[in-house]
């Protein structure tokens, strides 16, 4: 077996391991679990009641349901698949289940697109509930794609797999392109590389370097040349962001995917919406109406059944069949027409397996946030590619993996990371950074990016008057101790959380509450652990101890590092949480996660953490050294004494 096939087969094995682990974790939560426990886990809402139903885009049935027990937890998110059930006597069988996809979740209600034409009768029952489902289909598509790459049937795929992960060199032409005045030097270099690449190119975009701006420009240059383009990203949110920017740039984009998974703002770019706006849609609607009318007539013959009625009924059914055929052709024509007018197709990585794209190939497939997609998922759009362009940063968060073993064996290494390491010349690093004041960027620049980044001119204005840019407030010796939340096993540190809130409260007062409001300056509070996030949220939003902060609720975001990827805030505080005598720092040791955390701030970055626990780790030791060198080191004792 050749080396590439061997590597791909190992990838397939790891994917199956991950699939099993994911399913096992799901089953552990679900099967043999009482309704009460499922409610506690937040994977079932019960009881619920149907508040409203309506017909949405693409004539799909939407139901809005309400949670009656409002104290319940919730792990429901938009885009997830769910199943409704009833616990009422006589309805509790498995036949009485209907699936759907969540459009929107609010605190006590959600809107679901139902996979049914009408609301089943049993959904009127009083003891209705809704379960979260396991997403098996994505794994199947990933498995299918990997198998295709292992035994490629088409010549181009055979070549691409050897170029991307094998020994074959990537080819480039040497035509020169006119530089865009809207792009900086390295952004133009990246677009030049993409234009010249015959097989693959990579935009390596560190935080705040205009990766999206460059990508949109490269896509627009490709469509100007008349090339067919598919744009993908691992998550629905990332695809939606791109579609929004492409549409703003005047590029006609078709967003493929279930409308329930698409943001409200870009629903107009979906096939359903474009079909509904098509000039022939009225005819299609008329045909559908006729079908319903004939069906209704045919059903009237149910009771009295003589030969004449039978003949009449058959005629009606024949007519329905004929109209259905006509409607199908018209629908196909509408889709064909929409596809003809589309310059760019957009979907998630897994969504690229959509039947709408069956048999299609694309001159260029662009994959954004490629450093966050599992390798198997990334191959799905590449099956349709003549050339592939990755954009992302493999030095920020990798994809989330459930199986510890599979991650250790290499499942977390993305295809983009493999290519950038094996074929460094296909990548172009964006070097000009527009977000952070130079001091904030400094550590990450040296540690992760070989000192190649530059802070753009605009960042010179990124500061708060009379405030230092960097602060590490060392909690060593203060007796703060991290502990584990019993239910979630996540870590929190209540004393540190309390200190962080007090400190932030004072800081905002010092800079000037009115200035924050006037300038719309934003504030972020990061904690690496969800338990610490919950703790901080409850201190700020639910207690009355910090009225200044509470009054700022719409300017303050409190979240984990993962929740902040891709975002920025003017002022950023990080509660590092870990403080123990064992020097245990858990997943804080993941440097790429920390890279994301320390590169979100524009004007000021404050770290709150225990040096005696953290600096045992070489990364934190260097980071602390950097803060000291910049005059940003302070001890918590300075604040406790006052
Ligand atoms: N050539 C440029 N000249 C001036 N400003 C630019 C340039 N390129 C990007 N920017 C600005 O930098 C900011 C970040 O740009 P963009 O959203 O494209 O970055 P990104 O790299 O995708 O961000 P992220 O860190 O989220 O990945 C935006 O405010 C954008 O206007």
UniProtKB/TrEMBL annotation:
* Domain spans labelled AAA+ ATPase: 197-371
CDD domains xrefs: SF1_C_Upf1 (cd18808)
Gene Ontology CC annotation, any one: chromosome
* This protein's UniProt keywords: ATP-binding, Cytoplasm, Helicase, Hydrolase, Nucleotide-binding
List the subcellular locations: Cytoplasm
**Keyword Cell division: yes or no?**
no
Task: Answer yes or no on keyword NADP.
Answer: no
What InterPro entries is this protein classified in? AAA+_ATPase, Coronavir_polyprotein_1ab, DNA2/NAM7-like_C, DNA2/NAM7_AAA_11, P-loop_NTPase, SF1_C_Upf1, SMUBP-2_HCS1_1B
Main subcellular location: cytoplasm
Citing just one GO molecular function, the answer is: 5'-3' DNA helicase activity
SMART domains recorded: AAA
Highest rank taxon of the organism: Bacteria
Q: Which Pfam families match?
A: AAA_11, AAA_12, SMUBP-2_HCS1_1B
Q: Which Gene3D superfamilies match?
A: 2.40.30.270, P-loop containing nucleotide triphosphate hydrolases
Which Enzyme Commission numbers does its entry carry? 3.6.4.12
Similarity remark: Belongs to the DNA2/NAM7 helicase family.
Protein name per UniProt: DNA helicase
**Organism the protein comes from:** Algoriphagus faecimaris
